[in-house]
Amino acid sequence: MERSFLQRVQNINERISTIAAIVAAVMILVIMLLTVVDVSLRKFGSGIEGYIELNGLMMVVIAFFSFGYCWYRDGHIRIDLFLDRISYRAQFAIRAFGALSGLVFFGAIVWKGIGFAFDAYRKWEVSSDLLIPLFPVKFLLVIGASIFCFQLLIAFAIFVSHVRKE
User: Fold this and answer.
1) Tally of domains within the chain
2) What is the rounded distance in angstroms from the CA atom of residue 108 to the CA atom of residue 87?
3) List of residues 6+ apart from 64 with CB closer than 8 A
């Protein structure tokens, strides 16, 4: 029963991670189009005002919305040379430690990010060139990091269940 519950939760989080990755992919497409337009306009003596600023704000969302999907697809960097030479139980223990370490690190980002986002909202922080409010980007960062934390928590539970079984 524990395994099926974890599997159901994992399936839900995979869908959420996939949606976040699609949002990130659309933003990459927008950045690409903005780049083409900006470079083309520079041929005529003017570019898109605030292009670099828009690019930077979108890159924050792209990065944090991609982490969960990358983990779910096992696209992260891993050194298999060492892991292939140890027992499955030790492999899962090391992976559980890695997931827990990531959970602590990204949990801290979520924890502090919530404060930064609310602070940006209260102070009505805006970007320097285009005066875009920064709190939505900071909240999106928190959402992306939260999705990843949830993915890491599920992975940690799965890894621990494997260590207990072996």
Assistant:
1) 1
2) 32
3) 140, 141, 143, 144, 145, 148
**Amino acid sitting at position 112:** K
Q: Residue 160 has which token pair?
A: 């621990």
CB of 135 within 8 A of CB of 120? yes
Distance CA 113, CA 116 (A): 5
Quick check: helix, strand or coil at residue 44? coil
Longest dimension (CA), the chain: 67
Instruction: From 160, 162, 155, select the one nearest 9 (Cα to Cα).
Output: 155
- E strand residue ranges, 23-134: none
Q: What is the pLDDT along the chain (166 residues), one digit of tens a residue?
A: 456 787 888 889 889 999 999 999 999 999 999 999 999 998 888 888 888 999 999 999 999 999 988 887 877 776 677 777 888 788 888 888 989 999 999 999 999 999 999 999 999 999 988 899 999 999 999 999 999 999 999 888 888 877 666 5
Residues, the chain, total?
166
Question: Which domain range does residue 96 map to?
Answer: 2-165
Separation CA 40–CA 51 (nearest Å): 13
pTM of the model: 0.85
